[in-house]
Amino acid sequence: MTAETTKKPAEMPIGLGATSLDPNFRANPHEVLDRVRAAGAVVEDTLLKRYLVTEAEAVEAVLRDRELCVDPRKAPKDSFMNMLRRRNADADAEEVQPSMLFLDPPDHDRLRGLVNKAFTPKAVDKMAARVQEIADELLDKLAGREGFDLIADYSAPLPTIVIAEMLGVDPNDQAQFKTWSDAIIQGFNPFMSDEQRQAIEGASQALNAYLRNAVAARRAAPADDLITGMIKAEDAGDFLSDDEIVTMIGLLLLAGNLTTTDLIGNGVYALLQNPGEWAKLRDNPSLIQNTVEEMLRFDPPVTQSGRIVVKDTVVAGCPIAAGSSLSPLLLAANHDPAFNPDPHRFDITREEIKHVSFGGGRRYCLGAPLARLEAQVAVGTLVKRFPDLRLAGDKVERRSVPAFNGLVALNVVT
Ligand code: HEM
After folding, report:
1. Is the peptide bond between 106 and the residue preceding it cis, with omega within 30 degrees of 0?
2. Ligand 1 pocket check for 305: Cβ under 6 Å
3. Nearest C-alpha to atom 22 of ligand 1 is from which residue?
4. Does position 1 have pLDDT exceeding 50, yes or no?
């Protein structure tokens, strides 16, 4: 591991060049990330005012580090971590209620503790039959078609229906959730235009109004779902406020659909680009668990995380001053040859797959067991029902929001 911060050579891809806003990055992310990693475990991005953490060992250490924070209010105004969340034209405007994604302890632990029970592997296992039913119903509708868009027709509706049912919002509104989600994740684009900012604001307000109605409906008529659970929640005497409930449902609804959609979409794309791997899975369905781990490693839905340094620290031997933003590059870590040999090869029989696609430490993805179950059922069933599936063309369009990595559409032929 390189023991000091690398001052970027002139040709080093930093700034936009190291994000999916750049068409070259979208086309060849590993060409870019391999060069950045070769420059050091920690690379200063002077353009975006952040430090890129590139090597797997350093990324894991940053994710585990309990001294690092995420609440942008602890970062200087012009820092990368603050730019990310500035949804309002007025940079000083206060957010309504930050989600746990952007909160530190004690609020983070309190909020996570309140919903944790619903997402444990044991709780999620009980949902397997329902996830299977939803996958079957969606694929029934596609039977007999010559082709379809895997994203619009399968990988987007499946997780959205699942999380809507868990929460207790109407799964029939799933197309509307997707429209709102697609707009809201643009908030992770540090270079959003005023027009985008307004669209994000409009979508957030519409989603919040919708969710406030859903909370009111559950207060009037409690049901066996998470919204009702949150209304009743009392954890060590600590109630959730209505604003916190709305923010939490919004986070789970968004986190629960976009990322899993992308895991299934990116993974099926990798399988169809490597027909030998598709055939292996078709002939040996018991490979599905390993296949989903390889899908997570190879083309992860979340490609970077973020942390704020609140007191001077050292990362992989590099001194980093308080106030700095760190971007642990999850995609670069998964493709670090020190983590996984021959990392750019997609291999569903790979042994000891290592990845950081669900983050790590105290912020390890709450939805990981659910995402794994959904992807295993979705892809396992797809291979069984459409054994001869292939790509309709050789071009796909990737979304251009930094940190969120997925396909806009994936046209396939049955
Ligand atoms: C393939 C699908 C998914 C991927 C790749 C993914 C990825 C991630 C990552 C990388 C983090 C850590 C962020 C950080 O380091 O700060 C995270 C956190 C989180 N994820 Fe997921 N996620 C997925 C699915 C889900 C699902 C299905 C849900 C819920 C239904 C969910 C809910 C959350 C929540 C609430 C957090 C915040 C945890 C915290 O701050 O303590 N995710 N996810």
Report:
1. yes
2. yes
3. 365
4. no
